[in-house]
Each structure stands twice: as structure tokens, then as C-alpha cells.
């Protein structure tokens, strides 16, 4: 059972939420993501992809705050998705010390830089905002452990795709996990850039 082998803090949260049984997608994907491999995760809507993203991120960071630089980055399509995911993370981080920060295009970049500088563990952002932060030295990737992309179908658009490639070129060593409903050929092309030796979980 994938849930049984997660950090005790996560198990307590799942119990409070009355989540006891993993979905078929979670049963297959969580052990592979925990192994540290780069993973393409493709499954239909409501298969438990976003919950998997949250659980594996928290597990990777051992549910505790460390240092100031982000150790997990999650990229999403837009402000709405960013805020939605931020709220979802908060329901799991309420009783641990992890610091979650959300950034998006509409929020002034200097504000984001100064707030990130104060210390975050999990940074949720959009590709364009993240790329801008990179170019302005507004975020350090020296401590990054896991880089996830939620509902990655939007990356089929060229501009977002270019921003992702630009961001990942500056990252030394990190695990990448990409979640989408379908494994589009344009997403598979990331194998040549940052998804090397990746595994595929498809439901």
C-alpha cells in the first residue's frame, strides 16, 4: 500500500481527511516517484494526480522546513491553477513547518523576489513568472530536490514550453515529474532536455 510507506505526518493528514485507499494511479505512481526517477504520469481527470503530486512532494521534503531556498518547485498553467494548488497544499502543511509560496504573472516580480528571499520550501508558480524570477536572480535552485508540473497539457503551447526549457537548463540536479491527462508527443520531447531516463506511468 503506497500510503503506508509515506511520512507519518502525511499519514496523519490522510487519516483526518478519511483517505484510506489509494486510486489505481496512486498505487502505481507513488512508489516510482518515491524512487527518485524522472516520471511522466498520464491519467484521466480525477485519477488522483494532484494529490499524488502533493503527497510525494511533502514526503521528499520530509514534512519540515529547511534553509531558505526552495527545495520543491511546482509549475502550473495560470494564476487560478496556482491559487487552487496552493490551497490544496495548505490542507496538508497545516500541521508541519513547511512553507508554501505561490507566485503568478499578476503579482509584481519584486514583491515575489523579496518574499521568496525570506524563505520558502515549496514554490508554486507559472512558467513565465518562474523564468522571470530566474533571469532576475530572484530564486535559488541550489537546494532543489523535486520539480513537478501539474496538468502539463498547457505546455504544448510554444511560449510556455520554451520557458520550461530555459528554466531547467539552469538547474544542476533534480527529479522531474510531469503530470498530464495524455502523454502528448510534444511533452515526450522534453526527454531530450530534462526528462532523461524517465519512466512512464500511464493509466
UniProtKB/TrEMBL annotation:
SUPFAM superfamilies: P-loop containing nucleoside triphosphate hydrolases (SSF52540)
Residue ranges of domain Helicase ATP-binding in the record: 30-201
Keyword Repeat: no
Keyword Nucleotide-binding listed: yes
InterPro entries per UniProt: DEAD/DEAH_box_helicase_dom (IPR011545), Helicase_ATP-bd (IPR014001), P-loop_NTPase (IPR027417)
Protein keywords: ATP-binding, Helicase, Hydrolase, Nucleotide-binding
Annotated GO MF terms: helicase activity
Entry-linked PROSITE patterns: HELICASE_ATP_BIND_1 (PS51192)
Pfam families for this protein: DEAD
Name of this protein: DEAD/DEAH box helicase
Source organism: Maribacter aquimaris
Amino acid at each position: 500500500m503506497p500510503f503506508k510507506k509515506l511520512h507519518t505526518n502525511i499519514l496523519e493528514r490522510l487519516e483526518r481527511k478519511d483517505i484510506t485507499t489509494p486510486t489505481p494511479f496512486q498505487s502505481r505512481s507513488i512508489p516510482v516517484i518515491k524512487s527518485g526517477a524522472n516520471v511522466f504520469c498520464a491519467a484521466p481527470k480525477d485519477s488522483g494526480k494532484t494529490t499524488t503530486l502533493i503527497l510525494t512532494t511533502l514526503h521528499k521534503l520530509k514534512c519540515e522546513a529547511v534553509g531558505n531556498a526552495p527545495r520543491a518547485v511546482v509549475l502550473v498553467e495560470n494564476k487560478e491553477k496556482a491559487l487552487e494548488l496552493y490551497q490544496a497544499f495548505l490542507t496538508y502543511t497545516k500541521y508541519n513547518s513547511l512553507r508554501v509560496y505561490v507566485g503568478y504573472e499578476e503579482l509584481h516580480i519584486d514583491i515575489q523576489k523579496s518574499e521568496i528571499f525570506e524563505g520558502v520550501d515549496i514554490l508554486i508558480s507559472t512558467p513565465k513568472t518562474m523564468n522571470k524570477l530566474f533571469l532576475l536572480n530572484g530564486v535559488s535552485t541550489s537546494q532543489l530536490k523535486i520539480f513537478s508540473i501539474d496538468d502539463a497539457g498547457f505546455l504544448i503551447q510554444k511560449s510556455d514550453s520554451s520557458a520550461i526549457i530555459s528554466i531547467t537548463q539552469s538547474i544542476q540536479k533534480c527529479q522531474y515529474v510531469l503530470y498530464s491527462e495524455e502523454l502528448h508527443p510534444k511533452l515526450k520531447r522534453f526527454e531530450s532536455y530534462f526528462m532523461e531516463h524517465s519512466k512512464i506511468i500511464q493509466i
